[in-house]
Amino acid sequence: VAAHGHARRGAGRVRHAHRRVPSGAMSLKRKMTSNDVRRYEMDAKKGKARAQCALACCFHHGHHVAQDDDEAVRLHALAAAQGYARAQCMLGRSYERGTGVAQDWFEAV
């Protein structure tokens, strides 16, 4: 309630702020390009977890690189070891499904 006793305009409505799409996420607004992949490769070599995860997703789905689940798991493991939550989730999913690694329910959790 505002100072004048009126409910604030828009109170109770959920507002979605415009936010930048993470570099690892596929955006419906913009398609990934080979330049994006090159940038991810350079940053991944520098040890940046976000880029490692994004590049791993490229390898998993075959976006502008040859599809390679083994490389995707390797890169997700590097990013996950740095505490990057998305990579930890994706690595767990790989273990759950057995993509790029032997299926292992214990490691998946």
Mean pLDDT: 80
Number of strands: 0
Amino-to-carboxy terminus distance: 46 Å
Question: What percent of the residues sit in helical stretches (DSSP H or I)?
Answer: 40-55%
Question: How is the main sheet built?
Answer: none
Class by alpha and beta content: mainly alpha
- Strand/helix succession: HHHHH
Strand content: under 5%
Radius of gyration, Cα only, in angstroms? Answer: 19 Å
Architecture overview:
- α1 (34-45) crosses α2, α2 packs antiparallel against α3 (69-81) and α3 (69-81) packs across α4.
- The chain contains 5 helices and no strands.
- The N and C termini lie far apart (46 Å).
- The protein is mainly alpha-helical.
- It has helices spanning 34-45, 49-61, 69-81, 85-97, 105-108.
Which terms summarize this structure?
about 110 residues, mainly alpha, about 0% strand, globular
Layout of helices and strands:
Elements lengths: L33 H12 L3 H13 L7 H13 L3 H13 L7 H4 L1
Helix pairs in contact: 1-2, 2-3, 3-4
Q: Would you kindly provide a brief summary of this structure?
A:
With 109 residues, the protein is mainly alpha-helical. It has five helices and no strands.
